[in-house]
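FORM 7B: Structural annotation worksheet

SECTION A. Query
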Amino acid sequence: MLVISIQSQVVHGHVGNSAAVHAMQAEGVNVAAVPTTLLSNHPRYPTLRGRVLDAELVADLLRGVEERDLVDEAAVLVTGYLGSPDNAVVIADFVERALSRNARLRYLCDPVIGDDGRVYVAEGILDVVRRRLLPAAHLITPNQFELELLAGVKITDTEGLRAAAAALAGKHRIDVVATGCTLVDTPSGQVETILCADGRLSRFATPRLPIRPYGTGDLLTGLIAAHLAKGTAIETAVRLAVETVFAVLVRTQAAGSAEMCLVPLPASGTQGPD
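SECTION B. Predicted structure
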């Protein structure tokens, strides 16, 4: 079982592959992790070191993935934060080659574009996502803002969500996992992850905790990819992923950490090595 995961990498914190890889490996899945950035931390910190990787380097790494026959071995291909428009084009080229080479490969596109009403990616990336990545995807995992932006549909209820999913699918099927949803009938104090598969909705609500660590969407996408790679049905894969992410958030809140606590806290009274 192998997942190819193309997204950002950071030294401190858990976003992009720095959130997803550990979670996928913990599920017993091998990961070929290809970075699009190498940064000291999430960009919303006061300072930031490192950079978006050059498209030439990303293309070279992806050629290496192909030369090692990893595309033939992989069950799921994931793309997340792309970093630059040039990277987006290089990655779209790779996605198309990979899907042509391995007809069994499932492509999971996390269209990392923005949140809270704000686009935070470089100009030009959105166009590549719309024109090339979405048409190739079998499954996408946008947050509610990204789904509205991509579909051009305001989402306030389940009918709006179905309309947005249908607008993105066009003439071929795309399953949609919409994250961070608050609809008119979402229970007070909760937030939903909603799967729209072939027009049918599966809703997974969890309590809204008073914390917002970075990378929860990347973690969720990685977990869904891992479960799919193991042959789990999509609805079960999403449910298991939501449960795990919520457990991580509960642990993070208990620790008072600004970053997700992916590793379980030590038992009370347990001491580390001297």
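SECTION C. Observations
The CA atoms of residues 128 and 228 lie 25 Å apart. The chain has one domain: 2-255.

SECTION D. Sign-off
Analyst initials: ____
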